[in-house]
Amino acid sequence: MAGKKERIGVVVVDVQGDFTEFKKGSLAVAGTDEAFIKALHEGTWRLKKAGFPIYGTQDWHPPNHISFYTNHPGKKPFDPIRIDGRTQILWPPHCVQRRAGARLLLESTLFRAVIRKGKDPRFDSYSGFQDDGGKRTDLDRTLKKDEITKLLIYGIATDYCVRATALDAVALGYEVILVESLCRGVAAETTEKALREMMEKGVRILKHLDLRKIKG
Asked: Which end of the chain has less Cβ packing within 10 Å, N or C?
């Protein structure tokens, strides 16, 4: 019996204004300037033209989201707190539903589907597949419906949402490739740690986008 045919999909993680220096976002990640957004745009168009379906993830928080430090009196940005046995890092308000900073910066015509996450005010959602409470998004169902078996992942931020999305993808049985040059991380130390962890879990790291190295 022949093995299942490989079908590759691309997941572009959280390329939104609030995460970029380009848009002077409230939670801008270093190195996310205009040149980086241009590289993301060009790389994603190359993949689309090569026939790969493109899926996006999008943080989509309500104003009362648990991760916003402003919803915790006396707390500051980046303070860690304990909630229901888990650690929650507090962030500046970002990617609030229907506000400019939540908009995706890549053209909508690139995407076969966009999966919104972090909609439940009680839970953060770094992964594109599920939130911290374990509730699944539509990403896995959408990929399975399209018979995707292998994922190319990149976006913002390497050490948080990209990492969580890649690790969940591996756990769900996808073969995963990360394009490092099309990612940016919050901090050098946590980014290096995330890259090591992903490699240990079976994620293949490509330094740069190379279509010849994606297949096979």
From this structure: N
